[in-house]
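User: I'm writing a tutorial on reading structure tokens. Could you give me a worked example: one chain, its sequence, then its tokens, then a sentence or two explaining what the tokens reveal?
Assistant: Sure. Here is the example chain.
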Amino acid sequence: MNPSRSHLLRLLLVVGLGLVVVSCGGGSSSSSDVVMPAGAKWTKESGSAVGLQARDNDFVPQFIEIKKGTKVTFENAGQNRHNVLAADQGSFEDIQVDQFDPGMSASRTFDKAGTFGYYCSLHGTKNKGMYGAIKVDG
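And here are its predicted structure tokens:
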């Protein structure tokens, strides 16, 4: 192999390894990244207070868009116990199972702009099953 070709192969190997390192370890994904199912849309809610239901295996509506300062009331309208956990821990106060039996409700006010994912850990994960998100406009 001639020297220039050997040099070119080494250079390509170094560049290729650099790309692998960057693509595998360079970026991070926030736990609040929301995966929208095909065909899902944001439900725009108005007013200073809105309701959201936890039914058996679904939040209804699943994805809501509100204004900053809106109070969201989560209501357990199903037959099963649920919870509401922030996908990005600490982004809002969780609603624990013992606070959210069938027929119970709990409210949280969203004072900061952003997208806040949530889920029921008994019936889903941050991006599958019983989950949703609240988009807060500034």
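What the tokens reveal: The chain has a mean pLDDT of 84. The CA atoms of residues 22 and 33 lie 20 Å apart.
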